[in-house]
Amino acid sequence: MAVTERVTEAETLLLVGETCSGLGEGASFTALEWVRREFLAKLGFEPYPGTFNLRMGGPAWEDARRVMAREAGIAITPEPGFCAAKCFHVVVAGRITGAVVFPEVAGYPADKFEVISAVPMRQALGVADGDRVAVSVLC
Length: 139
What we know:
4 helices, about 25% helix, about 35% strand
C-alpha cells in the first residue's frame, strides 16, 4: 500500500501514491468525442488516450478525500447513458499538468486516483507499477 501525505497550503493537497495498472478502459473513454470536448473546454487540454493510475491509502488519504468531496471541483457533464465526474487540476512529479478524475459511480474504488493529461504520463515519467509518485492537487 502506498504511503500518502497531506499538507494544505493555499488549497493545494500534496499526496504520494503508488503507480498501478488500471483496467484498460481509460483509453476508450478518453477517446469519446463528448469526453474530449468536455475536457478541452473545462480543463484546457485534450487528453492523451488512457489514464495514469495511482493507488492511495492511509489516514492522510482519507483526509484528502474528505477535502475533495466538499470542494466543487470541475464538473464533467456526461451525455445520456454515461456517468458524471468531478475533476481537480493536478501537477504530477512536479512537472506534468493534468487532472484527477473521480467518476460519480457507485462502487468506484476508494483508493483509485486516475489522472488524465495531454501526454502519456507513465512514459514521460519513466515509472512502472509500484513506483511512488508525488502529486499536487489544486482544490
